[in-house]
């Protein structure tokens, strides 16, 4: 079979360390010859050196891969927003990653901050290309006492329909339960669009039970009864907030995987741990690569290697079950998971 | 002394039940003659009967009170947004309730869903009159495949500065620690205004330590280390989300009090439990009136009756410490708290 062609952006901080383990596990499950990786030096280091975030030529090259793997980008020396807008969100928007997929599962053996979390296994389908993330809005009279700053959340029937449809599909192949999360009682322009769309698409999914929660109420259930959720569909910003909370509830950001998926297949999808670059522990082999390894499993599933995806997940699950309080280096965790796949 | 003049909006669902207990406790601590209450029939019942949400004449009457007490409004028969926009938010905006004050304290004896919550005692200062709550935005081509719906978050230097200043003041009289929560790396137009304002006002508060967290990260800390917070200042929507989560972490929405405060004193402030009208348990004496009683304590503090406020809080604290799993009616809880004030 033709090898899987991956564009890899290790990024900054702990990014390179966790990506190395993700690729180690990928090699172990596919066999080295079955993967071709090309590394791209993008992120804070490059920005400091050249002022570049994502040159057009690099973006076009990235477009040619079967999928992308990203570690984490950013360091405290880069002004807030520069790499987010110029690199991470630029990739999500340019490659039309409209399904930002974030599973939350409490694996056996993993400690939750909740006293009685129950059997937690849900996935958040976060819209990835519009909402409050468009950068629309602006500033009038910046820096004066008369300043006005606006942020415009842009929501289209086109954008909402495709992500809602994807979420219904996933609910159908899971436990048949979809929860729309929004704030329709206040953000009623966008809220009505989301609710109308869920109602309309739901006509085609009579086997899927549909619930609605305001985003504030959803955060309550995420700590009092997270096991109630199967698939959550929500907008870009609510999804950002809920998935960090969901990660915390299911053992922390060190385990949370994500996929920025272009489900139409018109550009490569990108897989990345939900965590950031954690500059405070960078280069010390302290980071947990599990989130990246699970992101690799999502990548495998996305490119149709479903068996291999399940094997990686099973290896992670087995490792987590025996992990306990042991302190291991980033590489040791990667080695242990890879060894289970040999 | 002249009696305290209160406008009371019991509202719908459990609203009237919990408000009755709040007023019972108020009578107990002040003595009946010291309070004059006028009840207003506003909410779902009135809307169903007359189509009115908040007639102008009623609003002008409400403007004349020393403070307002609200139970909860809404029932499933009212379309989402009608009472929120037409009554609750209308009052908050018309009476310029720019400090939406929401304390979170884990009282001794109260169970948290967290396994190890620690010593939680913080207050969220939520901006109450702008941000994504203005209703700005609109819909183009509603109901068609080409629909575009926008929500505009409006943030002004005027609005941000006054709430940030209030939050610094509160931090100074508490443990001297202020955390700004926003999403500056994505919502950078508004984010920069908030950050610049906190930096500028902070110059006058050298004794207050200032932190910043993205809203997604803040939700993580609210479940992994809520004791780290003292005062959080944030925008209207982030504040809505964080305070429901904070309520859940500190024993649930049945205990969460709030004040919609016009700190400039140009219109009456309004105090209300964070919970809603809970139509499923309405009229059954099942609702916990504690959130309303604690809102009454906030009301007392606001009108300068600080000793009485502290006495109500102490009575609640004592009741909570002995509460355990006992099942009591709404009135029994109110009676027990009132009895401690006799
Ligand atoms: C870094 C930031 C732009 C990003 C987001 O807000 O989407 C991150 O928080 C995430 O969830 O992937
Ligand atoms: C009912 C709703 C409009 C309100 C809000 O969003 O502010 C409520 O959730 C609250 O927190 O008081």
Automatic annotation (TrEMBL), chains A, B:
Main location: cytoplasm
InterPro entries documented for this protein: ICDH/IPMDH, IsoCit/isopropylmalate_DH_CS, IsoPropMal-DH-like_dom, LeuB_actb
Residues that, per the record, bind Mg(2+): 216, 240, 244
GO cellular component terms listed in the entry, alphabetical order: cytoplasm
Listed EC numbers: 1.1.1.85
Molecular function terms from GO: 3-isopropylmalate dehydrogenase activity; magnesium ion binding; NAD binding
Class of enzymatic activity (EC top level): oxidoreductase
Pfam family of the protein (one): Iso_dh
Transmembrane parts of this sequence: none
GO biological process: L-leucine biosynthetic process
Gene3D superfamilies linked to this entry: Isopropylmalate Dehydrogenase (3.40.718.10)
Catalyzed reaction equations: (2R,3S)-3-isopropylmalate + NAD(+) = 4-methyl-2-oxopentanoate + CO2 + NADH
Location of the protein in the cell: Cytoplasm
Heme listed as a keyword: no
Site (Important for catalysis): 133, 183
Entry keyword Metal-binding: yes
SUPFAM superfamilies: Isocitrate/Isopropylmalate dehydrogenase-like
Record-annotated Isopropylmalate dehydrogenase-like domain positions: 5-337
Protein's pathway: Amino-acid biosynthesis; L-leucine biosynthesis; L-leucine from 3-methyl-2-oxobutanoate: step 3/4
Function field: Catalyzes the oxidation of 3-carboxy-2-hydroxy-4-methylpentanoate (3-isopropylmalate) to 3-carboxy-4-methyl-2-oxopentanoate. The product decarboxylates to 4-methyl-2 oxopentanoate.
Protein name stated in the entry: 3-isopropylmalate dehydrogenase
UniProt organism field: Vallicoccus soli
